[in-house]
Specification:
This protein is an alpha+beta fold. It folds into two domains: 52 residues; 122 residues, Gamma-adaptin ear (GAE) domain (Immunoglobulin-like, Sandwich). The protein has one helix and ten strands, in the order αββββββββββ. Strands 1, 2, 3, 7 and 10 form a five-stranded mixed sheet that branches. Strands 4, 5, 6, 8 and 9 form a five-stranded antiparallel sheet that branches. The longest helix has 51 residues.
Amino acid sequence: MRKILLLSAISMVSSIYGQTNCDALKKENEVLQSANKTLTSENEYLKKGLEINKPIIDTEQENSSFKITKVEGNKAEKNITISFLIETKDENKKMTIEDIFIVDIEGNEYKIDLYKSSRPYPELAMGVPMKLNFSFKDIQGEPLFIKLFRFKATAQSGKNSFEIKRSNLEFKDLKVSWN
């Protein structure tokens, strides 16, 4: 009889102790699930950021990186917008972008629409990409490719204002996504 009472007392104590730990484990599980949701949303945000800034084509000149990320055409407005990122690799710079134009596959040349484009005088901080959009208007037809996108970039060092570097940049055969 003592053995039965002893076993029942042990089972009751372990049952009560097990339920107390169960509540603590539930709370810990809720905290971990909340942290998991937060990390999942941050991960999705970073994946989208990588996909948005994924370059179609890129080049590097004078320690600056130029990456075209999107070429979109708008059928209703008859324009093409080219989005790209500029990033300086060595120091802060002031840049001037000029003589911007595109040539479609039929040989038609289009000048930039400065009213719908980013300002062509970006101030670059080292290691920080800056997004620019250049829009071209009065597009004839709906060309599927831009044969040539050309501009001149003049970079002035943040440290030495007399040091000026000039670059002529060309991007060829850019596919246009029309909407």
